[in-house]
Amino acid sequence: MAQKESINKYLSKNGEVRASVVIATQVVEELRITLGSAPMTTIMLGRAMMGCLLMASHLKEGENVGIYYKGNGPMGVMFAEGNHDGTTRGYSSNHTFHDPDMNFAKSVGIGLFEVVRTSRYHQQTFNGAVEIRTGEVGDDLAYYLMQSHQVPSVVSLSVSVDESGRVVSAAGVLIELMPGASEDTIKKIEEKVKSARNLSKMVQEGADKKEMVDEYLNDFELMALDYDVPVKFECRCSEDKAKRTLLLLGLEELEEMMKSKEENVVVNCDFCNKEYKVTKKELEEIKNTAYRNTLN
Protein backbone atom coordinates (compact mmCIF):
# COMPACT_ATOMS: atom_id res chain seq x y z
CA MET A 1 0.00 0.00 0.00
CA ALA A 2 1.39 3.43 -0.98
CA GLN A 3 2.30 5.75 1.87
CA LYS A 4 0.26 8.90 2.33
CA GLU A 5 1.98 11.89 0.73
CA SER A 6 1.72 14.51 3.44
CA ILE A 7 3.55 16.36 6.21
CA ASN A 8 3.30 15.50 9.90
CA LYS A 9 4.79 17.17 12.98
CA TYR A 10 5.94 15.89 16.35
CA LEU A 11 7.14 17.38 19.64
CA SER A 12 9.04 15.56 22.36
CA LYS A 13 7.20 15.48 25.68
CA ASN A 14 10.18 17.09 27.39
CA GLY A 15 9.78 20.04 24.99
CA GLU A 16 13.40 19.88 23.81
CA VAL A 17 12.93 18.60 20.25
CA ARG A 18 10.47 19.18 17.45
CA ALA A 19 10.33 17.36 14.14
CA SER A 20 8.50 17.48 10.83
CA VAL A 21 8.47 14.74 8.20
CA VAL A 22 7.24 14.51 4.63
CA ILE A 23 6.76 11.87 1.94
CA ALA A 24 6.55 13.49 -1.51
CA THR A 25 7.38 10.89 -4.16
CA GLN A 26 4.56 11.76 -6.57
CA VAL A 27 5.05 15.49 -6.03
CA VAL A 28 8.71 15.33 -7.08
CA GLU A 29 7.81 13.06 -10.01
CA GLU A 30 5.26 15.64 -11.17
CA LEU A 31 8.00 18.28 -11.02
CA ARG A 32 10.20 16.06 -13.22
CA ILE A 33 7.45 15.50 -15.78
CA THR A 34 6.47 19.18 -15.83
CA LEU A 35 9.99 20.54 -16.29
CA GLY A 36 11.43 17.60 -18.19
CA SER A 37 14.31 17.79 -15.73
CA ALA A 38 17.44 15.64 -15.79
CA PRO A 39 18.04 13.26 -12.85
CA MET A 40 20.48 15.51 -11.01
CA THR A 41 18.21 18.56 -11.23
CA THR A 42 15.20 16.46 -10.23
CA ILE A 43 17.04 15.30 -7.11
CA MET A 44 18.27 18.79 -6.25
CA LEU A 45 14.92 20.52 -6.72
CA GLY A 46 13.03 17.67 -5.05
CA ARG A 47 15.19 17.98 -1.96
CA ALA A 48 14.80 21.76 -1.95
CA MET A 49 10.99 21.57 -2.29
CA MET A 50 10.78 19.17 0.64
CA GLY A 51 13.09 21.38 2.70
CA CYS A 52 10.78 24.33 2.05
CA LEU A 53 7.68 22.30 2.96
CA LEU A 54 9.24 21.14 6.22
CA MET A 55 10.18 24.68 7.25
CA ALA A 56 6.83 26.10 6.15
CA SER A 57 5.00 23.53 8.29
CA HIS A 58 6.18 25.46 11.36
CA LEU A 59 4.90 28.79 10.06
CA LYS A 60 1.41 30.27 10.09
CA GLU A 61 -1.37 29.84 7.55
CA GLY A 62 -0.66 31.84 4.39
CA GLU A 63 3.10 31.88 4.92
CA ASN A 64 5.67 30.23 2.68
CA VAL A 65 9.39 29.56 2.40
CA GLY A 66 11.58 29.81 -0.68
CA ILE A 67 15.11 28.51 -1.21
CA TYR A 68 17.48 29.98 -3.80
CA TYR A 69 20.72 28.44 -4.96
CA LYS A 70 22.75 31.16 -6.63
CA GLY A 71 26.01 29.46 -7.55
CA ASN A 72 28.43 29.89 -10.44
CA GLY A 73 28.34 26.21 -11.43
CA PRO A 74 26.70 24.69 -14.54
CA MET A 75 23.44 23.94 -12.71
CA GLY A 76 22.68 27.66 -12.75
CA VAL A 77 20.12 29.33 -10.48
CA MET A 78 17.61 27.10 -8.71
CA PHE A 79 14.54 28.03 -6.74
CA ALA A 80 12.04 26.02 -4.72
CA GLU A 81 9.04 27.10 -2.70
CA GLY A 82 6.89 25.44 -0.08
CA ASN A 83 3.72 26.73 1.54
CA HIS A 84 2.08 26.08 4.91
CA ASP A 85 -0.86 24.54 3.03
CA GLY A 86 1.37 21.82 1.51
CA THR A 87 1.71 23.21 -2.01
CA THR A 88 5.15 23.42 -3.60
CA ARG A 89 6.93 24.15 -6.86
CA GLY A 90 10.48 24.42 -8.22
CA TYR A 91 12.49 25.95 -11.05
CA SER A 92 15.99 25.67 -12.50
CA SER A 93 17.60 27.88 -15.10
CA ASN A 94 19.34 24.78 -16.50
CA HIS A 95 16.97 21.92 -15.73
CA THR A 96 18.48 19.58 -18.34
CA PHE A 97 21.95 19.62 -16.74
CA HIS A 98 23.18 16.28 -15.41
CA ASP A 99 26.50 15.14 -13.96
CA PRO A 100 26.80 11.31 -14.02
CA ASP A 101 29.16 11.53 -11.03
CA MET A 102 26.52 13.41 -9.02
CA ASN A 103 29.09 15.93 -7.81
CA PHE A 104 26.72 18.49 -6.33
CA ALA A 105 29.43 20.77 -4.95
CA LYS A 106 31.08 21.17 -8.35
CA SER A 107 27.78 21.42 -10.23
CA VAL A 108 26.34 24.10 -7.94
CA GLY A 109 29.60 26.00 -7.62
CA ILE A 110 30.48 28.91 -5.36
CA GLY A 111 27.75 31.33 -4.37
CA LEU A 112 24.87 31.99 -1.99
CA PHE A 113 22.23 29.83 -0.39
CA GLU A 114 19.32 32.15 0.30
CA VAL A 115 16.09 31.57 2.22
CA VAL A 116 13.10 33.87 1.73
CA ARG A 117 10.00 33.86 3.90
CA THR A 118 6.86 35.60 2.68
CA SER A 119 3.17 35.83 3.52
CA ARG A 120 0.13 36.38 1.36
CA TYR A 121 -1.17 38.75 4.04
CA HIS A 122 1.90 41.00 4.35
CA GLN A 123 4.14 42.72 1.84
CA GLN A 124 7.24 42.44 4.01
CA THR A 125 9.65 39.59 3.24
CA PHE A 126 12.32 38.07 5.44
CA ASN A 127 15.59 37.16 3.73
CA GLY A 128 18.68 35.42 4.97
CA ALA A 129 21.69 34.09 3.10
CA VAL A 130 24.83 32.07 3.79
CA GLU A 131 27.56 30.80 1.52
CA ILE A 132 26.92 27.48 -0.20
CA ARG A 133 28.76 24.88 1.88
CA THR A 134 28.42 21.56 0.04
CA GLY A 135 25.68 21.80 -2.58
CA GLU A 136 23.79 19.15 -0.59
CA VAL A 137 20.47 20.80 0.28
CA GLY A 138 20.17 19.21 3.73
CA ASP A 139 23.66 20.29 4.76
CA ASP A 140 23.26 23.82 3.43
CA LEU A 141 19.87 24.22 5.06
CA ALA A 142 21.12 23.00 8.44
CA TYR A 143 24.03 25.44 8.17
CA TYR A 144 21.63 28.28 7.34
CA LEU A 145 19.37 27.49 10.31
CA MET A 146 22.35 27.51 12.64
CA GLN A 147 23.96 30.67 11.26
CA SER A 148 20.80 32.73 10.73
CA HIS A 149 18.52 31.47 13.51
CA GLN A 150 20.93 29.81 15.96
CA VAL A 151 18.84 26.63 15.73
CA PRO A 152 20.85 23.38 15.77
CA SER A 153 19.11 21.08 13.29
CA VAL A 154 19.24 17.78 11.49
CA VAL A 155 17.98 18.01 7.91
CA SER A 156 17.73 14.74 5.98
CA LEU A 157 16.33 15.02 2.43
CA SER A 158 16.38 12.09 0.03
CA VAL A 159 15.20 11.59 -3.57
CA SER A 160 15.84 8.40 -5.54
CA VAL A 161 15.37 7.99 -9.29
CA ASP A 162 15.53 4.91 -11.50
CA GLU A 163 17.63 4.40 -14.65
CA SER A 164 15.12 6.34 -16.74
CA GLY A 165 15.13 9.30 -14.32
CA ARG A 166 11.68 8.54 -12.90
CA VAL A 167 11.28 9.36 -9.21
CA VAL A 168 10.76 6.19 -7.18
CA SER A 169 10.87 7.71 -3.68
CA ALA A 170 11.23 11.07 -1.96
CA ALA A 171 11.12 11.88 1.74
CA GLY A 172 12.50 14.35 4.23
CA VAL A 173 12.89 14.91 7.97
CA LEU A 174 13.65 18.16 9.81
CA ILE A 175 14.64 17.93 13.47
CA GLU A 176 15.20 21.10 15.47
CA LEU A 177 16.52 21.48 18.99
CA MET A 178 14.43 23.86 21.07
CA PRO A 179 16.01 26.52 23.35
CA GLY A 180 17.38 24.94 26.50
CA ALA A 181 17.90 21.47 25.05
CA SER A 182 20.25 19.46 27.27
CA GLU A 183 23.65 18.10 26.31
CA ASP A 184 22.24 14.59 26.78
CA THR A 185 19.55 15.29 24.20
CA ILE A 186 22.11 16.61 21.74
CA LYS A 187 24.36 13.56 22.19
CA LYS A 188 21.49 11.13 21.71
CA ILE A 189 20.50 12.75 18.41
CA GLU A 190 24.10 12.93 17.19
CA GLU A 191 24.48 9.18 17.75
CA LYS A 192 21.25 8.44 15.90
CA VAL A 193 22.35 10.52 12.91
CA LYS A 194 25.40 8.29 12.52
CA SER A 195 23.31 5.13 12.20
CA ALA A 196 20.18 6.48 10.46
CA ARG A 197 19.05 4.66 7.32
CA ASN A 198 18.49 6.37 3.98
CA LEU A 199 14.97 7.83 3.90
CA SER A 200 14.30 7.00 0.24
CA LYS A 201 15.19 3.38 0.89
CA MET A 202 12.89 3.37 3.92
CA VAL A 203 10.03 4.65 1.73
CA GLN A 204 10.66 1.89 -0.80
CA GLU A 205 10.59 -0.65 2.02
CA GLY A 206 7.18 0.64 3.12
CA ALA A 207 8.13 2.69 6.18
CA ASP A 208 5.64 5.30 7.35
CA LYS A 209 6.48 8.83 8.48
CA LYS A 210 6.53 7.98 12.20
CA GLU A 211 9.14 5.29 11.55
CA MET A 212 11.29 7.85 9.73
CA VAL A 213 11.17 10.24 12.69
CA ASP A 214 11.91 7.38 15.08
CA GLU A 215 15.05 6.66 13.09
CA TYR A 216 16.41 9.79 14.80
CA LEU A 217 14.21 10.22 17.87
CA ASN A 218 13.23 6.79 19.20
CA ASP A 219 15.00 7.70 22.46
CA PHE A 220 12.34 10.36 23.04
CA GLU A 221 8.66 10.16 23.90
CA LEU A 222 6.95 12.02 21.05
CA MET A 223 3.55 13.66 20.75
CA ALA A 224 1.95 13.87 17.31
CA LEU A 225 0.79 17.44 16.67
CA ASP A 226 -2.45 18.33 14.93
CA TYR A 227 -0.91 18.79 11.50
CA ASP A 228 -1.48 16.24 8.72
CA VAL A 229 -1.32 18.22 5.48
CA PRO A 230 -1.37 16.59 2.01
CA VAL A 231 1.38 17.82 -0.31
CA LYS A 232 0.94 18.66 -3.98
CA PHE A 233 2.80 20.27 -6.86
CA GLU A 234 1.03 23.50 -7.73
CA CYS A 235 1.99 26.57 -9.73
CA ARG A 236 0.48 29.98 -8.95
CA CYS A 237 1.05 31.48 -12.38
CA SER A 238 -1.68 33.42 -14.18
CA GLU A 239 -2.18 35.44 -17.35
CA ASP A 240 -1.87 38.67 -15.38
CA LYS A 241 1.44 37.57 -13.82
CA ALA A 242 2.74 36.50 -17.22
CA LYS A 243 2.01 39.96 -18.62
CA ARG A 244 3.69 41.61 -15.65
CA THR A 245 6.89 39.70 -16.36
CA LEU A 246 7.06 41.46 -19.73
CA LEU A 247 7.26 44.76 -17.86
CA LEU A 248 10.63 43.64 -16.55
CA LEU A 249 12.04 43.66 -20.09
CA GLY A 250 13.67 46.76 -21.47
CA LEU A 251 11.93 49.05 -23.95
CA GLU A 252 14.26 47.96 -26.75
CA GLU A 253 13.39 44.29 -26.25
CA LEU A 254 9.67 45.07 -26.15
CA GLU A 255 9.98 47.05 -29.37
CA GLU A 256 11.80 44.14 -31.03
CA MET A 257 8.97 41.84 -29.98
CA MET A 258 6.50 44.24 -31.57
CA LYS A 259 8.29 43.79 -34.92
CA SER A 260 7.55 40.07 -34.96
CA LYS A 261 5.26 38.86 -37.73
CA GLU A 262 3.55 36.51 -35.32
CA GLU A 263 0.06 37.53 -34.27
CA ASN A 264 0.73 36.80 -30.59
CA VAL A 265 3.71 36.72 -28.29
CA VAL A 266 3.98 33.54 -26.23
CA VAL A 267 5.14 33.72 -22.61
CA ASN A 268 6.01 30.46 -20.83
CA CYS A 269 5.86 29.98 -17.07
CA ASP A 270 9.27 28.80 -15.82
CA PHE A 271 7.65 26.64 -13.14
CA CYS A 272 5.00 24.72 -15.09
CA ASN A 273 5.70 25.51 -18.77
CA LYS A 274 2.15 26.76 -19.28
CA GLU A 275 1.84 29.06 -22.28
CA TYR A 276 0.18 32.47 -22.17
CA LYS A 277 -0.52 34.36 -25.38
CA VAL A 278 -0.19 38.13 -25.42
CA THR A 279 -1.70 40.01 -28.37
CA LYS A 280 0.13 42.78 -30.19
CA LYS A 281 -2.37 45.28 -28.80
CA GLU A 282 -1.69 44.08 -25.25
CA LEU A 283 2.05 44.18 -25.92
CA GLU A 284 1.73 47.78 -27.09
CA GLU A 285 -0.04 48.67 -23.82
CA ILE A 286 2.71 46.93 -21.83
CA LYS A 287 5.38 48.82 -23.78
CA ASN A 288 3.63 52.14 -23.08
CA THR A 289 3.39 51.29 -19.38
CA ALA A 290 7.10 50.42 -19.32
CA TYR A 291 7.88 53.74 -20.95
CA ARG A 292 5.81 55.67 -18.41
CA ASN A 293 7.61 53.84 -15.62
CA THR A 294 10.94 55.16 -16.91
CA LEU A 295 9.64 58.71 -16.46
CA ASN A 296 8.82 58.25 -12.78
Summary of the model, kept short:
The protein is of the alpha+beta class and 296 residues long. The chain has ten helices and 13 strands. The strands form three sheets. The protein has a six-stranded mixed sheet with strand order 7-6-3-4-5-11, with helices on one face. A five-stranded antiparallel sheet has the order 8-9-2-1-10, with helices on both faces.
Question: What this model shows, in words?
Answer:
It is a single chain. By secondary structure, this protein is of the alpha+beta class. 36% of the residues lie in helices and 32% in strands. It is built from ten helices and 13 strands. A six-stranded mixed sheet has the order 7-6-3-4-5-11, covered by helices on one side. The chain has a five-stranded antiparallel sheet with strand order 8-9-2-1-10, with helices on both faces. A hairpin with a 5-residue loop joins β8 (153-161) and β9 (167-177). The longest helix has 18 residues, at 39-56. The protein is elongated. 38% of the residues are buried. The mean pLDDT is 90.
